[in-house]
Amino acid sequence: MVLCHGDFLNADHDYVHKNKHVKGFGTYGDIMIRDRKMYVVPTPFRLIEGSNAHLTLVVPEDYEAPDDFQCVGELVRVESDRLVTRYTFDLQSNDIRIGTEPNPSAGTEHRFKAWRLKSQPATEVRLAVGQ
User: Which of 35, 60, 72, 109 is deepest in the core (most CB within 10 A)?
Assistant: First the structure.
């Protein structure tokens, strides 16, 4: 089991999600379409290696772990060059298209540590290949 800090999955704290809708869909024009975003975040098991079958805690590097924990990895996530800032969906073709913009924080490193109880194996935790 992996318990990780939310910033390990997404460090943006500014975006405010709002559900929207449009009316007038369907043959009679009385159907409403709700735009309810669904965010699919990679699990820690996709992002890191060395955590299978072990209890692992992933937190920002400045977290002070209790004395009965051992550090089993140092992880660095780097912000991407571009951000998805918009999308459109074509109801006839079922195509979704995204628009991106440069990430003003591109290249910023976010540092984390993986911790495990000292009574557990000290198997190293590292970012998965391609992360």
Answer: 72
Domain spans in the chain, listed from the N-terminal domain onward: 2-127
| Residue 47: its H or E element | helix 44-47
Query: Both tokens of residue 26?
Result: 């369907």
Are residues 27 and 90 in contact, defined by beta-carbon separation less than 8 angstroms?
no
Query: Are 9 and 58 contacting, i.e. CB atoms less than 8 angstroms apart?
Result: no
Q: Is the pLDDT of residue 130 over 80?
A: no
Query: Can you tell me whether residue 120 is helix, strand or coil?
Result: coil
| Structure confidence by residue, pLDDT tens digits, 49-94 | 999 999 999 999 999 999 999 999 999 999 999 999 999 999 999 9
Summarize the chain as % helix, strand, coil (round to 5).
5, 45, 50
Answer yes or no: are the C-beta atoms of 128 and 48 closer than 8 Å: yes
